[in-house]
Amino acid sequence: MNFDYLNHPYPSQRMTAFAKNGMVATSQPLAAQAGLDIMKKGGNAIDAAIATAACLTVVEPTSNGIGGDAFALVWVKGELHGLNASGPAPKSISIEAVKEKGHEKMPTFGLTPVTVPGVPAAWAELSRKFGKLPLAEVLQPAIEYAEKGYPLSPILAKYWNGGYKRYKEIFKGDEYKGWFETFAPEGKAPGVGEMWKSEGHASTLRSIAETNAESFYRGELADKIDEFSKTHGGFISKEDLADYKPEWVQPIKVNYRGYDVWEIPPNGQGIVALMALNMMKGYELTEKESVDTYHKQIETMKLAFVDGKKYVTDPEKMKVTSEQLLSEEFAAQRRSLIGEEALTPEPGTPPSGGTVYLATADGEGNMVSFIQSNYMGFGSGIVVPGTGIALQNRGADFSLDPEHDNALEPGKKTFHTIIPGFLTKDNEAVGPFGVMGGYMQPQGHAQVIMNTIDFNLNPQAALDAARWQWMEGKTVQVEPTFPTHIAQALARKGHKIEVALDTGGFGRGQIIWRDPKTGVLSGGTESRTDGSIAAY
């Protein structure tokens, strides 16, 4: 790809970063620097990814935590490896048990939607398989930030305060006291530049580091989670934790105009981005800022999304395969539905047969695309007292309709929103990319890839370009910088266009590309948050 690095037509004017020996791109400067420091101490890109991820649980708890899930795509020695560290529903849960608690659909907060966390196991497994430094050394920067504290950055403080205001209104039970004690210790959310620390968080990270995460799944931390769950009527138990192991999986891909775009297979929603790209490659796109381009992008994404929401769940429970959903036949069938007017999407029939993202690369050619999340910001609102462990609420995506593909079952993994991406060409790494943010993620992936491949935008410009987001039916939200004349033309095609004044819902992305001839790294980071690149 021959980018014009000086041509940056989008508002942020932040320029692409370059380096040769190592690079870390993520949403928090302190975390990016921690990853780079680990690399400089002799660690590789995998060690840097773990260090950055652990730091993010401390310096961006509004989006992720120790009690969340994680996925990773890891490029080592010319091969791409996939790690699925999402956890299943507890063994004691069932549709009937949830309904007995008075719920007609899965609740969003509390202990009921808590699934087994995969984050600590992901760190330990990545370290075991590919790391160069001991996990205890890699987690040390995160431990120090938790123990000594750090000052909040602006966007972080905004989301922290928003979460506090919301939770103060809706969290009334004793089970939520740990959240307020941990994240609002002075009776309010910390502000921009104010210090925050969590000694419980530090103690938990130290325990994970010293035991390679065994304490979390089969030791003292597992006992604390189990005791708290039993006390407050939760389903998760130490037996669920003890049985958990992350899975190495074969990444899935589509070839898009000569490039292979890779995602983690279901239960993640990365396949949605691939289905959309599989449809889009049937069109010749002549220019980015045209009504026809945006119309086709939106229509393919709608169709891909309704198929993903219908069929994607625990891979062992899926009624169709990834191969069927990514087949040329299915892409052509779905593409044929797209006309000049906006459609209301319905699922097709395949042929038979709140999150943080980071990217790292080192001078040896290793690269990591890593994502972890608690979901919906802080997650379930449950923090196990004295531990800093904020538990996720991934179970909120389960359906209580027993006929639904993603119906709640004990030990089942739910449809998962968080997805890391990776790009290769001719079996060589181009690099990791990702856009976090709920259901924006596959939409962000597809937009960033098309910006890069179809429109030749450099990494920073590809991220800064105005984004759109399909919401439901014919409703599409666009950012304030989205071209007004194109928005008006899309409305004439039947799209219901809404201009969103807050850009927070349009995702936060990172990109690192590697030049195969020189090994030079070029990176872009998110201008919609406190994004940062650390490099040397």
Automatic annotation (TrEMBL):
Protein EC: 2.3.2.2, 3.4.19.13
GO molecular function, one term: leukotriene C4 gamma-glutamyl transferase activity
Modification after translation: Cleaved by autocatalysis into a large and a small subunit.
Pathway(s) where this gene product acts: Sulfur metabolism; glutathione metabolism
Catalytic reaction(s) noted: an N-terminal (5-L-glutamyl)-[peptide] + an alpha-amino acid = 5-L-glutamyl amino acid + an N-terminal L-alpha-aminoacyl-[peptide]; glutathione + H2O = L-cysteinylglycine + L-glutamate; an S-substituted glutathione + H2O = an S-substituted L-cysteinylglycine + L-glutamate
InterPro entries on file: GGT-like_enzyme (IPR052896), GGT_lsub (IPR043138), GGT_peptidase (IPR000101), GGT_ssub_C (IPR043137), Ntn_hydrolases_N (IPR029055)
A Pfam family reported for this protein in Swiss-Prot or TrEMBL: G_glu_transpept
Transmembrane regions: none
Keyword tags: Acyltransferase, Glutathione biosynthesis, Hydrolase, Transferase, Zymogen
Oligomer and partners: This enzyme consists of two polypeptide chains, which are synthesized in precursor form from a single polypeptide.
Family the entry assigns: Belongs to the gamma-glutamyltransferase family.
PANTHER family xref list: GAMMA-GLUTAMYLTRANSPEPTIDASE (AFU_ORTHOLOGUE AFUA_4G13580) (PTHR43881)
NCBIfam families from the UniProt entry: g_glut_trans (TIGR00066)
Protein name, UniProt field: Glutathione hydrolase proenzyme
Native organism: Litchfieldia luteola
